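Re-running the complex after MR caught last week's input typo. The corrected sequence lines follow. Everything else is unchanged.
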Amino acid sequence: MSFFRRQWTAHEADEWTKEDFWACVFSSLSYILMMIGLALLFLLPVWGLIIFAAGLLCVWLMYRAIDPKLKTVSADYEVKQKAYLKELDRIMKWEDK
Amino acid sequence: MQIQPSVIFTFWDWLWLILYISVMIFSGILFYRLGKRSESDFFLAGRGLPWWLPASSVYATHTATDTPMWMSGVVYQHGLAGMWYSFFAAWCAVSAFVSTRIFRRSLAYSQAEWQTLRFSGLGSELLRGWMAGWQVFMNMMILGWVGMAMGKVCHYAFGWDNWVGLVLFSSICAIYVLAAGYWGVVIADFQQGIVVFLGIFIVSVWGVYEAGGPAGIVGRLQELGETSRLNPFHFSGWFSGDFPAAWFITMLFIALLGGIGMGTSIDWYVEAQRIQSAKTVRDASYSIWGGTALVLTRNSLWAAAILGFYVLYPDIPDVKDYELAWFRIGFEMLPPGMVGFFFAAIVAIHLSTVASILNLGALYATRDLYQHYLNPHASERRLVWVGRFSTVLVLVGSFLYGSMMENITQWLIFALWVMAAGIWLPNILQVIWWRFNSWGYLSSWIANLGLSWLVVWILPAQGLLPDLPDYAQFWLLMGLGILIYVPVTFLTKPDDMDHLVRYYVQSRPLGFWGPVRREAERQGLIKAVTEGVEAELGR
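Corrected-run output:
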């Protein structure tokens, strides 16, 4: 069984879970490693390559953690979006108060 | 060291430049019909963009004319560790999966509009008006300082007066922003993003090559006794020196935790527009993440080139000279015929920022001031025209502010601290804590404006407070702010519960929303966790 959940119902995906936390962790690590790694690629190429590759690995882990959940959140939300936009328009015209 | 204002343009250099500017203006005319369809098109491209378009816009917008100056300054001074100054952008690492999702679901056109969706009553209206007015002002100021940076580059390259570079290129940019609004911005940003990335890559690789390649730079640093410049974690001590580890830890804290909130970075307001222009929640998340990944890796290219410049010219004492390092690599080291391409990349860097800021300032003036307070029933056609008029207003304002700014770095640092310090925590609290109300948030803004001037300028000038390092200013401003907005929050009523429930059900924020969630469950608007799972499985 995968550490990161692959199947989500719309209701479950609306909750904040460990997948969100780990996506943030891997995302932050990937930024740090890619930034340092790419700069070092031009100066100390071996170290640069190792660090940059570690950054790319973090990107992949981030994607694995969050993408199935994001897809479900998106699909469910887009169904409701039209009604929400109408509501926003009513609020903008001061018609909801 | 004296700067020689003499860059020789050949026929091919002028051709690159004229072709490039023509393509930009043409793209504006091409999307004119889409931009004028509605307010949503003029400011959000109809909310229908795939993730890579707003991502390229995030990247292009945050690559401004003053950015390579800023990066050159900090990397020349501190070596690779100087890259951390630009790591504030990493708030997007967390925001992409937290505040971006929450904000996208709110569907607010702007952060000012979000205030009235999150908060209720008079306080929320005051917040919206204040934030919209402040954003119009801030966008004029930002345009002023990036415009002046362009003025300085043109002065260095061609010997023009600073105001010529400021007025000329911002005005060219305004043509396609006026014609096509955000459509023009985002399509031009995509092209500019490619030109900018190519330009930065070519110039930086060329700079490393001219400095002797990787081995040459490392060898020269060893000769100079400066190998610590290759260490991204080289600090001057825990609390001492000009680059202490305490600053680094504070920066990581601000940047990464700041991604939970909205407005914790000055860049949020630009990103907010890109988030809403993405066609889905998923596209919004990836656009913010991808655009920022490009921003940070771009900084790496600059940093390598600036280290190359450092080993060639290690003894430049004046910041005004070495902050032009990357521009000097391009103008002085590239072969003839490529200088025009380099200048086209600089123009791309400049136009992409100017276009975004012009349209963003106009968005706040149109949606949050004109439509919300003056003419809620305005037709779509009228709103587009008000958007165009506001664009001109922001442009003219930027010329006035630009002409008043002498020292870019000083303004930039102050603006970043004003934005980051006293309202950093309130910007998170408004997202994660249901009880934090509009009066608490409003009081944090007012307190921060006063406190930041006191702590940064007035008290040190009067000798009543020592000159604190900026990371210490951050903690002091945060602590002083808490003493004001927390009591104000508890002494005033919570926001209207029905309003909070409506916001919660639509946006599903994280954090401390227990009473609101229970009320939403009681009203049957959302299901309890276990109940929901059972229902989904049953279905």
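None of the earlier attempt is carried over here. Residues 13 and 69 of chain A are 6 Å apart (CA to CA). Chain A has one domain: 16-92.
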